[in-house]
Amino acid sequence: MAGIFVTFEGVEACGKSTQIKRLKRRLQAIGREVIAVHEPGFTEIGSAIRHLLLHTKGGNAMQPVTELLLFAASRAQLIAEVIRPSLAKDNIILSDRFYDSTTVYQGIARGLNATFVRMINEFVVEECKPVLTILLDIDIETSLIRQMRRVRPAGTLDRMERLPSEFFEKVRQGYLEIARAEPERIKVVDASQSEDRVDQEIWDHVDALLS
């Protein structure tokens, strides 16, 4: 793979979308071809799976294993259609979530068997693994405040966003746990700072990678 694969992770409203847009502009300014993707969704099949995961009627009855496999299916399609071909063309891929989300949300927070989750991740991802992961870390109280500030119609939280604070605290601690286990790949950035400061810290990590 000639390209560079960078992923962004974190709890809800940590600023992933904003920082991916900023990084994409920086990279394009120095002449790099950049493709920004998101999970779940982005492909046509992935979008259908996203609706099933987040908005379908009766979604609260979805079992954790069902959730795991649907996220994996969406990711498999994204890899086949976009990520693998783009990396082969020497592009830079920026992804809003990837397999670390599955490790944390479905594995650690949902309590699914860690070995099983890892096997599913490895089966789907194969060689398409990120060389750098930016973990935008904020506390859950800040996350909830930011979500309330989002402009959206009332009562439109998706199935995952409606989960209790205790679930997201497990998610946050899970992210920090895997960051401690893989410090070379996963870089933790304090996302409670200003957007400009977060942007600069991210750029420092990416610039070091490019160098």
Explain the overall architecture.
It is a single chain. The protein has a 5-stranded parallel sheet, sandwiched between helices. It has helices at residues 16-29, 44-54, 64-88, 99-109, 114-125, 140-149, 165-181, 195-210, and strands spanning 4-9, 34-38, 92-96, 132-137, 186-190. It has one domain (4-210): P-loop containing nucleotide triphosphate hydrolases (Rossmann fold, 3-Layer(aba) Sandwich). Helices cover 55% and strands 13% of the residues. The mean pLDDT is 95. Helix 1 (16-29) packs across helix 8, helix 3 (64-88) runs parallel beside helix 5 and helix 4 crosses helix 7 (165-181). It is α/β, with parallel strands linked by helices. The protein is globular, with a radius of gyration of 17 Å. It has 8 helices and 5 strands, in the order E-H-E-H-H-E-H-H-E-H-H-E-H. The longest helix is centred in the middle third of the chain and has 25 residues, at 64-88.
Summarize the structure.
The chain has 8 helices and 5 strands, in the order βαβααβααβααβα. With 211 residues, the chain is of the alpha/beta class. It has a single domain (4-210), classed as 3-Layer(aba) Sandwich (Rossmann fold).
